[in-house]
Write a structure and sequence with these properties.
- With 75 residues, the chain is mainly α.
- Helices cover 52% and strands 0% of the residues.
- The protein is globular, with a radius of gyration of 13 Å.
Length: 75
Amino acid sequence: MEHVLFTQPNSPIYPKDLALLQRVFDQICLERGEDPGSVWASEIARTLLKLYRSGVRDKDLLLASIPRFRTRTAA
């Protein structure tokens, strides 16, 4: 089977694709010391889903598409 970087937009999210998105999300949170339940992590999850829905299926492209830094607001 050929590795696909981009596919049709709005394709169904299959279990293997959901697992990929979860691995990318977990890696981003771990590398950045972010609580997966935080507001910022929710934004990352939404962004990953939007990227997936737009056709991005490659782990490295998904990781590269998420900004490395963010501004933390004082509580």
